[in-house]
Amino acid sequence: MSIQFVKSAKEFQDYLKNNTYILLNFTASWCGPCQAIKAIVDQAYVENKNVEIVRIDLDSQRDLAEKYNITSVPSFVFVENGQEVDRITGANVQQLMARLQEFNTKAQGHKRKGKGLGAEDVISSNNDLKDIKSLIPKNFEILNSTIDYSGYEVLNCLPLYKDSKTRAVVDLKDSLDKSTVVSDSDSQLLFYIPFLNISKIYSVLIKVKSNKDHGTAGNLNLDSDDLEEVQQPNLVKIWCNSQAILSFDEASSDANAPHVEKVSDDNGDEWLNIKVKFVRFQNVQNITIFIDGDDEDYHTLIEKIVIVGVNGDSKEQGKINAGEEE
């Protein structure tokens, strides 16, 4: 992953929460020395893997600049366990690199985690997801924590539970117990999922089968008769970088979607492991997912969508096996 700009105070707190050792790079687009030292700091990020480094724009994040008393840029603030322990002001490369190497050595054994948790951390903290561990290759991440919910849209989608929301199906903070959604008026669902960072998509995992009792009709948005007319998906289509969410007519009629997956009736897996053509899903800002069932009069049910890939412009992309691009 490349060095990211902090986009909000909440995102900054996520970085502090998930990283014991972090370097804050205060910068500005109009600052010549900042641009001159940028490539050097980027390379240092690759070499010093124990320390998270984030960039903070002086103009767009004034509150953070004031919090750390930043009066000039570039400024570099070293933070350990949430507390400032040192700082360097100006583009003093020799001093900065020496201090960063010392900081990285001190951080030995602490793996940087960006603003969120790695795939293993996410899975270990959520028992509902433990069965997808084997479906995520080494060096790939779960990207759900980078979804931009301000632009998230769904069509013809109904939460199964009255006290749930449609975003629960992709929000890992919501357990599988209450994340189930169904198609509303017919068998089709459409999801428009934008990301905070430009990413690379490896696969989309869709939880489609459950043996649990969904409860009584009193706490559900479906009545008992509708519950008898629930089905699993038999078709999934995926697009990337759409300007806006597609219409159902566009999605259902597009035979040349970047990825089309037909699901067999005898699929015995609880998770659909949809491996997209990796070369087609580079530099992804958003994805659109169309899901349909076999019977247009039935409700199509899914419990969770997990997106797997590489967050940002990674220097160490996950490796795919020969033949997976075909």
UniProtKB/TrEMBL annotation:
What keywords does the record list, in alphabetical order?
A: Disulfide bond
Question: Do you know which InterPro entries this protein is assigned to?
Answer: Galactose-bd-like_sf, PITH_dom, PITH_dom_sf, Thioredoxin-like_sf, Thioredoxin_CS, Thioredoxin_domain
What sequence ranges are listed for the domain PITH? 132-326
Q: Which Pfam families is this protein grouped with?
A: PITH (PF06201), Thioredoxin (PF00085)
Descriptive protein name: Thioredoxin-like protein 1
Q: Where is the Thioredoxin domain?
A: 1-105
- PANTHER family under this entry? THIOREDOXIN-LIKE PROTEIN 1 (PTHR46115)
Q: Which GO terms describe its cellular component?
A: cytoplasm
The record's listing under PROSITE patterns reads: PITH (PS51532), THIOREDOXIN_1 (PS00194), THIOREDOXIN_2 (PS51352)
Q: Which gene encodes it?
A: txl1_1
